[in-house]
């Protein structure tokens, strides 16, 4: 359980994988993102994840019901990294807070590579 919301009729618990999938899908909607990056433990290499399991490139921690999100992405060559990272941060914050009701405190975007 990464976060929960208590209402008048009961409570809702969110697992880490549900929030990670929302983050992964929100990231892939942004222009310039080729895919998520996942570290291959054997080789220490970063591999591209296109659509099969987008939550593998996302790490989520929770503190006081506020989420700290860290994601690893691969971008398209020729795009401005700072603009794309800002778009990703805004989209993730908006989508996670609207879909779940949980508060997002920080989002860290780690660019692991650039693909042509």
Automatic annotation (TrEMBL):
<protein>
    <recommendedName>
        <fullName>Asp23/Gls24 family envelope stress response protein</fullName>
    </recommendedName>
</protein>
<dbReference type="InterPro" id="IPR005531">
    <property type="entry name" value="Asp23"/>
</dbReference>
<comment type="similarity">
    <text>Belongs to the asp23 family.</text>
</comment>
<dbReference type="Pfam" id="PF03780">
    <property type="entry name" value="Asp23"/>
</dbReference>
């Amino acid at each position: 359980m990464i976060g929960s919301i208590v209402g008048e009729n009961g409570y809702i618990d969110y697992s880490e994988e549900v929030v990670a999938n929302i983050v992964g899908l929100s990231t892939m909607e942004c222009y310039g993102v080729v895919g998520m990056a996942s570290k291959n433990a054997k080789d220490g290499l970063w591999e591209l994840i296109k659509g099969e399991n987008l939550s593998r490139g996302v790490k989520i921690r929770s503190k006081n019901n506020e989420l700290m999100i860290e994601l690893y992405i691969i971008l398209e060559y020729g795009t401005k990294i700072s603009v794309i990272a800002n778009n990703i941060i805004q989209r993730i914050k908006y989508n996670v807070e609207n879909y779940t009701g949980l508060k997002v405190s920080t989002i860290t975007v780690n660019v692991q590579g650039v693909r042509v």
